[in-house]
Each structure stands twice: as C-alpha cells, then as structure tokens.
Amino acid sequence: MDTIKKCQNLMLGIAIGDAFGAGYENLSRSEVQEALNMTQYDCYPFESGHKPGHYTDDTQMSIAVAKTLYGMCFDRRNLTHSFLEEYKSNNIIGYSRGFLSILEASKSPEDFINNVVHTERNGAVMRAVPIGVLQDIKKVVENSVINAQISHNTDSAITASVAIALASHYFFYNLGQPSEVIEFCIDNMGGFNPESLEYLAEVSKMGELKPEILFGEENKDHGVPIHGLKTAGAVLYLLTRYSHDGMETLKQAVLLLGDTDTTSSIALGIVQSASEGGLDDFLQDDLQNGDYGKDYIRRIGTRLATILPMEVRSIKRLNYPGSRQSMIVQTLDGLLEILDPIYLTQVMKQLFDQIDYKPTDIILAVDASGYIPAVAASIVTGLKLGASKKADLEISNRIEFYEPGTPNPNVFMYSIPDNSRVIIVDDEIMSGNTAYNAAKALMENGHKVLATVVPVESTRHNSREKLSSKGISLISHTKHDFS
C-alpha cells in the first residue's frame, strides 16, 4: 500500500472510529450490549445536535495536528493556531465545556496558551495518531511531547501522547507483531514518567481483560475514563489483541465502555493505516461528507503523505541513443502511477515556502521534465511561468544552455524579461550540471537566479555544492542515492 493511501486510511480511520464510538459513549454495559449495532452509526446518546455518522472533537483535533505536520513548523504556537483555525471554521460538538470555552474565548494562540488549564485528561492522546507517520522516531517522540505540553502538560498525559504516537508509528511502518507494540513503546520512552511506564508494562503483561488494572479500581465498572494514560492503555490493549480485524477492533473498543469515541478513534486510525480495508461499506458510505466530511479528510490524508519521502526508481531506457541509459522516475513524474494533484501542489507549496520570492519573480521549467512541478508551483504561488525547449526557435530573448548526457544537448530559454529574478524548477537533480549551466547562462544575460527547486535530489553527487558556488540554493523534497 502506497504512503498516500496509508495516510488517507489513517485519517479516515480516526473519523470513522470517532463517529461510530460516539453513539455509545458513557452508556452502561447493559445499555451497550442492548444497543450495539455493527451495521449502522448511531447518534451521541446524551447530547442533542449530534447526527449519526458525524465525527467529534477527536477527529477535528487530529486534523489540526496533521495540518501542522505538513504545513508548518511543529511548535506550540503553530499547533495552537491550527486548533483555533480548525474549530472556528467548523464548530462541532464533543469538546468538554472547559476546553470549549477556551477555544471560543481565544483570539490568538497566545490567548489559548495563557488560559489553558493543564490536566491528566485525554485531550492530547486523542490527537496523537497522525504524529506516528513521521519517519524519524526521535521526531515522533519530540512532537508528541509538544502535542501534550500545550494543553495537558502533566507527566501521565505526556507519556500517553508519546505512547500512542509510537504505537501509530509501529503499525504504519509494520515494525513487528501487534503483540509486541507495548514493549516497543516502552523501549523508546526511556526517561519518561516511571509510574506511567509501569502502568503500560502492567497492561502488556495482562492476559485476560482486568478492568481494575486497565481503567483503575474506581472505573472498573464504567470503562475507559477521560484520562490520557488510561485511554492509551485501553488502545494498546486493543491493538495487541484485535488489530488483525478493523471491525473487531471497533466492536471491542465500544465494549470497553466509557469514552468510546476516543478509544475507537485512536485504535481504528492506527489499525487502518496498516490495512487495505477490512471495514464494512456503511462505515465509509455513511460517514459525514460536505465541506468538512470524508472527502475533506481524505485530502488531509493526501497532504499528510507529503511529509514522507517520495518513491524513487531507476528504470532502464529502451532504445535510447544518449549516455544516460537509465532514467530516474519519481512520484511527481506521473509515470509510476497517475499523479494526485493535491499531493503535487502540496509538495510544491512546501518547497516554495522556503523561498523569499516576490510577485514579479519567474519560475523556469527546465525542458519537459520540469514542466509538471513548475506548473504546480506556478499555480500555488501565482508566479509567472517560463519554459525551456530543445527546439531552436526564432523568438526574442533567446538564451541557450547545455544539458549533458542527452542526444540533443542544446536547450533554449525564451522571452524572459530583462533583469528577471528566476527560480529554476526540474524534476530531479543528479550532478547538477544542467541546473548549473542554465543558471550560468541566465546570470550571464543579466538575470538573478534565486534557487533551484527539485522534488528529488541525489545524495551521490555534489550538485548542492556546485550550485552553492554560484550563490544558488538547492531546495528539494526527497533525497535519494539513485542506486
């Protein structure tokens, strides 16, 4: 399963689990056993206004975390900004009265940070699943700590946030057997609160369900409490036993009672990231849609995938007369699979966000290979787009440069206004000779080259140093050895 699909499944799993679990929140065991229907969504039993198939705060907060991961630096202020922006654009139910009052009263991230009351509740752990998508396990831990610190800065809540992000990472990357996920979490949480880690170790050793251990003696008859660490324990318990089947995961999450929407949301988000399907059709068919429904969530998942490296392959050319007998092919070429425009534009936005460009600057596509990313960059930035061709045409302001290793190495740039500031865009960079030659020709003709932007950069060549010698920065999304 490709990374885009995995991220879409993760985000949809969060929303489906949330919407389904909301129908059974805080019901007694007898009420759940009587009401549980695995063929339809139900509305939240204690709050008017909630409709079957509609998600709650768990999903909205997870969306905000995902947006911060792919759209900006993951820090306290930006994450808080995402919370406020998402809530104020889509006022949904499900937030606790206290947290809701802070969201509604905050006009800035600083307002929120200054007014939030830190507790051991499960507001941080409910939104930690998307963090597990990060490749670097140190960043998973670091960002899940930040996630908790802004609203639940207590030892147990921080530990819970990190544990769930690590569990999400474990399943997303298929790092081992489900039965070993708790050990994996503990092994990567050295230095965290000893009492919290001891609780997770107890859950790991638990054979049959022991509510007094999992939920605490005071909650053994009521199910999962609104407590971060106990919520994490309940989810980890489910993952070790039922993650082979999404429907069974969902059912067992509800049967644990208590805060069923949070438990179901976290567990199903993690399970679905590692699954091709396994859910009954109604769960996706009847999930809310509209401006902030399943199509929106699917797009969030697509954009979340841009925080991961692209797929890169070296493929043999057939009947090619030049010296480049193999071709580097990557996700944005549209050759390995049909290209998703949301993914494409998000990647180019991330790259151009690193450039201090002006509205009068020009994007230059380097021959046909650079057209797809250059057009996308032009769309997301609003910058004008220039093209280069191997055809030698009788057009004014003609600038020639050399592309080595090709049967027809002469390339021509046309109609670039005098004294322009130019950003070169290509699909990938190896030796850097082509971009270097294009930049040199532009500079010799009075233009300023701001940067070279490529989706994929070779780590086996010195292209970055070569361009730097001309004062040109190289900005790339994915680094690869091109072997």
Structure description:
This protein has 483 residues and is an alpha/beta fold. It has 2 domains: 3-305, ADP-ribosylglycohydrolase fold, CATH 1.10.4080.10; 312-480, Rossmann fold. The chain has 20 helices and 10 strands. The strands form 2 sheets. Strands 3, 4, 5, 6, 7, 8, 9 and 10 form an 8-stranded mixed β-sheet that branches. Strand 9 (448-458), helix 20 and strand 10 (473-480) form a beta-alpha-beta unit. Helix 8 runs parallel beside helix 12 (228-242), helix 13 runs antiparallel to helix 14 (260-273) and helix 17 (341-352) crosses helix 18. The chain is elongated and about 85 Å long. It starts with a helix and ends with a strand. The model has no long low-confidence stretch (mean pLDDT 95).
Describe how the helices and strands are arranged:
Elements: H1 3-21, H2 29-35, H3 57-71, H4 76-89, H5 97-105, H6 109-115, H7 137-149, H8 155-172, H9 181-187, H10 194-205, H11 211-214, H12 228-242, H13 246-255, H14 260-273, H15 281-285, H16 294-304, E1 312-316, E2 326-330, H17 341-352, E3 362-365, H18 371-381, E4 384-389, E5 399-402, E6 410-413, E7 421-425, E8 428-429, H19 433-444, E9 448-458, H20 463-468, E10 473-480
Parallel strand pairs: 3-4, 3-7, 7-9, 8-9, 9-10
Antiparallel strand pairs: 1-2, 4-6, 5-6
Helix pairs in contact: 1-3, 1-14, 1-16, 3-4, 3-16, 4-6, 7-8, 8-9, 8-12, 8-14, 10-12, 12-13, 12-14, 13-14, 17-18
